[in-house]
Please model this.
Amino acid sequence: MTKHPPSTAAARLSQLLLLAAFALTAHAATILNFDTDAIGTTTQFTDTVNGLSATFSSPADPGGFEIEPSIFQALTGNVLGDPGTAFANNIPLTITFNQDLSALGAVFATADFGAPSPFTLTAFLGSTQVGTVSATGIVPIGFSFPEGEIAFEGSPFNSVVFSSPAPDFAIDDVAVATAPEPALNAMVGFALICLGAVCTRRKR
Model:
């Protein structure tokens, strides 16, 4: 059986798909871990990694969260926790991004000496809530406070609010995926359709 080399059109479509996949991967993961922030830095402040800027604030009590050295197991290096210099309890933490996101995850710890309190992530696009999720940590052996992971994925969003009935909480390793641009999604879809058509013709 003679094998025919792929047509120029099919080869170009394959290259297009590879470029699109690379572009999607490039949007895949950015991690904010506070390790380059100075101990004692309080909200409000902005960190920028790979062109993604995240502004951490506590509108209910400015200065309520502070960069601190970790005392936890899963949260390492520096963490962002309360109480900060304002010594306030039971306040939410807001993170606002300069780009739309499709997913976000973080590790957290809550200041509970009894039963672990739920930890909640609420996502917004502008002022519109697009979703919410809660998680509860467990106390690692040899440590004092519940720790856990929380993640949200769904409709594009550009800010999140973390909250908990626990008096205080801390977060670390905020990993985000930016939302692919509509034009990129259209390009990938068009390339897949065209590649499917070329493959169908070659089979015939």
Remarks:
- Residues 32 and 174 are 5 Å apart (CA to CA).
